Amino acid sequence: MSVGSSSPQQATLSAIQRLKLIRTLNELPVPQFGELVFSLNPPSGVLPPNFAAQGNRTSILLQWAEGPTGSGLPVVLDILSQLTGAPALAPSPDQNVGPCFLASRRNPFFTGREELLSQVHQVLKTREPVALSGLGGIGKTQIAAEYAHRYRDQYTDVLWVRTESEDSLIAGLTALAQDLGLPLSQDAEQSVVLQTVRAWLKANQGWLLIFDNADHINLARDWLSLSDKGHILLTTRASETRPLAECISVMNGADESWKSCCL
Description:
This protein has nine helices and five strands, in the order αααααβαβααβαββ. The chain has helices at 15-26, 30-40, 54-66, 73-84, 114-124, 140-150, 166-179, 190-203, 221-224; strands at 130-133, 158-162, 207-212, 230-236, 246-249.
């Protein structure tokens, strides 16, 4: 079932269709993923070795498939359908089954930072967005995850969006649309998806929304005004976050933090 690479057929996927395809590929059992790669037959050296993370292999495989010498997405979808026995982009069942908890995994060895966590909670209760600011690798994401798990009972939904770039932000918000079970067609345009997520946030109260790795804080600017409906927490390397968000500095040491560190 090997596929040639000349004159690739092209296809255009909606934001939701692309997300569904990526998730399907990431969740394929390793033998099936290997069959897919064998059938597509990308040139030697295109994909990382088998021991690499499947998410990375998926991303590179799709980049190749959509490139000038790739197989084209229709071929990927056709082979994937044959392997799984189901349409690759079949509509998802209704997911609107209750509250969402989408926070990053909790660190079982997390200790300290008690004063900082309490401070974050107190500021968020004022409906002001909070930015955990500090150097890379200092533990901002772990603190945000600990906060989400520790206070989860005080929120209707806990939502997590990676915000390293505009692409990751859009992908994260698109994932939220699916995880919240929002009524969107498979061919919904990106702008429609984002408008639907915004409408849900405006129509519901009591949620916690975390923008992780928002180093370019302006990427989240348009969403921070929704803090009157829920709590918004960001992690960022930016040292100046006001007036967009109240800044809490994350320093080395157990509880070295200041509520108004950013002028």
